[in-house]
Design the sequence.
């Protein structure tokens, strides 16, 4: 059955920012497809652990602050200690700072670039070294954004970071495809999570955004389950360096 190419049975997935929002949704989706989850976050991941267990898989969590690359080596070591191998990395943890570009501070710039781009690169490097040591193929899935494709407003460090994520996804795919490592990204559209709380609280901006989404609704964490399972599975072995928009048609408009 071709559908067996989508199974993640026996695979281990590291998911950063797994405590809530899109990371939680993707962790549960990967678990539904059979993957064992190693969640990383600096908030409590109890809710995710329960949801992963409820779909019949296993969860290990590690508390780490990804605003620096200090925890990177330990993440790989602990995931390997828990499960023996690592097969999938979902670089999901990320933040956004909103301010007019004219007033934007160095801290607002560095805080966003550090977690959204620097940690994404060094964690990808560490997991790729692990794939090579295991002599096994691997899947890296980055989380990009509509602002990998568009400019946006009042989020200069976020747009720079997510545009960088799309470029880095292409570069790493070019370097590592020969090792049977796939590096792709998912660009979520406007999703109802903490990340967009401020936007959704602004009635005018919220109506403006909603009016432009062909699907007529904000996205939900579960909307990412199918795409992340596809990119984590053998079904996507010849898809490399690509960023898939999961946006209810936003970019098609
Ligand atoms: P969220 O704020 O609900 O979740 C982000 C997760 O990352 C949280 O679990 C948080 O605790 C974790 N995190 C943040 N800083 C951390 C740190 N220093 N160390 C460890 N963990 C940390 O937001 P979300 O919407 O679920 O965002 C997930 C990803 O999706 C982000 O990369 C975000 O930029 C991206 N994204 C979101 C949207 C959207 O509309 N919500 C759209 C496009 C892209």
Sequence:
């Amino acid at each position: 059955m071709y559908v067996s190419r989508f199974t993640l049975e026996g695979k281990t997935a590291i998911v950063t920012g797994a405590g809530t929002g899109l990371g939680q949704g993707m962790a549960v989706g990967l678990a539904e497809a059979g993957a064992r989850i190693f969640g990383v976050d600096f908030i409590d991941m109890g809710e995710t652990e329960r949801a992963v267990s409820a779909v019949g898989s296993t969860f290990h969590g590690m508390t780490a602050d990804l605003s620096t690359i200090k925890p990177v080596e330990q993440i790989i070591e602990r995931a390997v200690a828990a499960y023996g191998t690592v097969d999938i990395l979902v670089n999901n943890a990320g933040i956004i700072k909103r301010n007019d570009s004219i007033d934007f501070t160095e801290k607002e710039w560095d805080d966003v670039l550090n977690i959204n781009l620097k940690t994404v690169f060094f964690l990808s490097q560490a997991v790729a070294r692990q794939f090579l040591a295991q002599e096994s193929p691997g899947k890296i899935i980055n989380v990009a954004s509509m602002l990998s494709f568009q400019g946006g407003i009042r989020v200069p460090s976020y747009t720079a970071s997510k545009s960088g994520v799309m470029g880095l996804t292409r570069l790493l795919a070019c370097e590592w495809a020969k090792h049977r490592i796939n590096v792709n990204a998912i660009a979520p559209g406007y999703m109802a999570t903490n990340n967009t709380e401020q936007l959704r609280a602004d009635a005018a901006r919220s109506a403006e955004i909603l009016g432009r989404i062909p699907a007529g609704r904000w996205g939900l964490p579960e909307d990412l389950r199918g795409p992340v399972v596809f990119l984590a599975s053998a079904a996507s072995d010849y898809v490399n360096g690509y960023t898939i928009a999961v946006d209810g048609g936003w970019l098609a408009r």
About this structure: The first strand starts at residue 12 and ends at 16. The pocket of nicotinamide-adenine-dinucleotide is lined by residues 17, 19-23, 41-43, 65-67, 92-96, 115, 143, 145, 188, 190-191, 193-196 (CB under 6 Å). The domain at 6-252 is CATH 3.40.50.720 (Rossmann fold). Strands lie at 12-16, 36-41, 59-63, 88-91, 138-143, 181-188, 243-246.
